[in-house]
Amino acid sequence: MLMPDWMDPEWLLNWLGDWALWGTLLVIFIECGVLFPILPGDSLLFAVGLFIARGTIDVPLWLACVLLTVAAFLGNVSGYYIGRVLGTSLFTNPNAKFLKPKYIEQTHEFFERYGPRALVLARFVPIVRTFITIVAGAGKMDPKKFFLWTGIGAVIWAPGITLLGHALGNVEFIHAHLESALILLVLVSLLPMVVEVVLARRRKKAAAAADGGAAKHAAPKHAAAKD
Predict the structure, then answer these.
(1) Transmembrane ranges (predicted)?
(2) pTM score over 0.85
(3) pLDDT band at residue 224 using 50, 70 and 90 as cut-offs
(4) What is the Cα–Cα distance from 115 to 132, expressed in whole angstroms?
């Protein structure tokens, strides 16, 4: 892959050895809310599932899914409370390597567009996945609502991608072309967002058409009233 070794999930898991699952839990926790967005989230979950299927990681699949879900949830909770305490004050330097103001602006727009369900959709969007919780905390989102939606996202995201990796773990073609498979996974993980954008545009067009139709019907009545 055209990235540092630590961004390559296969290299990272092999480097961690017996600590592969625990290292993965830490990475997921950090990426889901501790202000460090450039980590292999989706691809690492997929690789963990694949390694469990191959026996390289000797942990029951159900236990790995539970632990990864907890790590993803707690990462978001940490990000939420960082946002409540610090707000967006850390995002002031446009030349910063990670905490760029544009990241928080883009995430805020994302949140405004999709509301609470953004916490689920954002799981599948790198960078936004990290900063969505900061925005929720800074905006003083109701904690109960936040915990509900971020919990739903964690349950869908972490076990879902891990189970996919496990299901394909014994497919030799996947092992022979792991780099390509991981790149494809990242692209596929963006599909929920693509679908949501398309649906949002259709709803916007439908609403605009409805408003236009209503305006046309109202115009003759207005004219008749003048006469």
Answers:
(1) 20-53, 60-82, 120-139, 146-168, 180-199
(2) no
(3) low
(4) 11
Amino acid identity, residue 204? K
**Spatial CA neighbour of 26 closest among 62, 87, 78, 83:** 78
C-alpha distances out from residue 98 to 7, 146, 170, Å? 15, 24, 37
Q: The tokens of 103 are what?
A: 């990241």
Residue 214 lies in a domain: no
Domain total of the chain: 1
Residue among 102, 100, 133, 92 at smallest CA distance from 116: 133
Show the domain range for 77: 5-200
Q: How far apart are CA 168 and CA 161, in angstroms?
A: 11
pLDDT tens profile 112-141: 777 788 888 888 777 778 878 888 888 788
Spatial CA neighbour of 48 closest among 30, 72, 24: 24
Q: How confident is the model at residue 191 (pLDDT cuts 50, 70, 90)?
A: low
187, burial (CB in 10 Å: exposed 0-12, middle 13-18, buried 19+): exposed
Rounded CA separation 226/36 (Å): 64
d(C-alpha 134, C-alpha 78), whole Å: 9
Is 39 within a domain? Answer: yes
